[in-house]
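Justification of computing resources. Each target in the renewal requires a structure prediction run like the one illustrated here; the chain below, 203 residues long, is used simply to show the kind of job we budget for.
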Amino acid sequence: MKKIIVSSAVLLLSLAGVVHAAGDAAAGKEKAVACGACHGADGNSMVPTFPNLAGQSEKYIVKQIADFKAKATRQDPVMEPQVAALSDQDAQDIAAFFVSQKLVSTATADESKLAMGREIYKGGNLQTGVPACQGCHGPTGAGNPGAGYPQLTGQHAMYTIKQLVAFKDGSRSNDDRKVMRNVMAGMTEAEIEAVAQYIASLR
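Resulting structure tokens:
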């Protein structure tokens, strides 16, 4: 009986590994060709309004594709037609491709805003109850793949500002348990700008 239980446990762990590694990066490279027009062929975007996807969390990318398809909690007129025909497997393959790519960010940052941005990113704002960004996204912006918290390292400031404002005004609501919307409720426009500029400086 003990042997059967152990064997079953090994089988379950093996299956869990298969599920986790569902994306095929090689297949994803072919499927992600159209994505390159905005995000760069290797996921390094040269346009500040489009995010870098290289090295991004696979779980995060898959979720965003699903949310864009659903058109409920995250809406975008550019992304919606791009993802409309993608299957779940397509999404996993595309995500696997981008996560396998090396991030080489070309984002630039306004140095005059880095001090405030660093302060909030590292320590938050105790007076207004804004938590430190690094609590979820890590000290270097590497994110938390297991929890689905995205990599922020070297993300373009213009893109980051757009997303933070969207969470603040509620036009983007695909954050788990309203985490980002609650954080943004206490952030000022100046703080949003500063944090975005600091994130762009991370490498």
